[in-house]
TrEMBL record:
Entry keywords, A to Z: Hydrolase
Gene3D superfamilies: alpha/beta hydrolase
Species assigned in the record: Legionella santicrucis
SUPFAM superfamilies registered for this protein in UniProt: alpha/beta-Hydrolases
Protein name: Prolyl oligopeptidase
Length: 103
């Protein structure tokens, strides 16, 4: 069990025993209409700690509101990127995104 899951369960209980608090605290898709900031989502397809589904959902939600957004999914990668070319790509995309949107 991942450490963050253990901490959530100790503080909040199981998700199915207290779904309202989990929805309030940990489901950003339900508040996507409040997001106005251009957002770059990056994830690794095989990441079981932070699955891509959350990024994919928010990406679609922001696109539907015409918020500038980009989604990058690194194939065959887990939580930490282990290929040099993917890591360099990630860093370049972050640099370009900040250079364009942070004035």
């Amino acid at each position: 069990m991942d450490q963050y899951t253990l901490q959530y369960e100790l503080e909040l209980g199981k998700p199915w025993s207290n779904p309202q608090i989990y929805m309030k605290l940990s489901y950003p898709l339900m508040k996507a209409n409040r997001i106005k900031t251009p957002t770059l989502f990056m994830c690794a397809r095989m990441d079981f700690n932070v699955p891509c589904i959350g990024s994919e959902q928010l990406y679609q939600a922001l696109r539907s509101q015409n918020i500038p957004t980009e989604l990058v999914i690194y194939p065959q990668q887990c939580h930490s990127l282990d290929r040099y070319d993917f890591e360099m790509d990630r860093l370049q995309r972050i640099k370009d995104w900040i250079g364009f949107y942070v004035k």
